[in-house]
Specification:
single chain; 117 residues; mainly beta; seven-stranded mixed beta sheet; four-stranded antiparallel beta sheet; 54% strand
């Protein structure tokens, strides 16, 4: 099992920044891709960003140039640096381990990001 705990969310004004953390335990963190998802009120959950075991990254178009995903293998942690936040970024953010499109583990509590206008 891979246990992931999200943290770092909060309330910020538009244009502000947050760094989310995804701390892993319980399994070999380095063998999995890690992805950040978000779900806003009334909307479907969407894939925001992912980072592969080799360090390659992908982003949904709406966050390209603003968000950066990274991983620290020594700390078993993946980060999502979010800059120039917009109200439409408001959502609960979740991280998941993945093998291709197969999600590993379960959804955690997430961390809430609220961006005021």
């Amino acid at each position: 099992q891979v246990q992931l705990v999200e943290s770092g969310g909060g309330l910020v004004q538009a244009g502000g920044s947050l760094r989310l953390s995804c701390a892993a335990s319980g399994s070999t963190f380095s063998i999995y891709d890690i992805a950040w998802y978000r779900q806003a009120p009334g909307k479907q959950r969407e894939l925001v960003a992912s980072i592969s075991t080799g360090g390659s990254t992908n982003y949904v178009d709406s966050v390209k140039g603003r968000f950066t995903i990274s991983r620290d293998g020594a700390k078993n942690t993946v980060y999502l640096q979010m800059n120039n936040l917009k109200p439409e970024d408001t959502a609960a953010y979740y991280c998941r381990a993945r093998v291709a499109t197969l999600l590993i583990g379960t959804w955690g509590q997430g961390t809430q990001v609220t961006v005021s206008s």
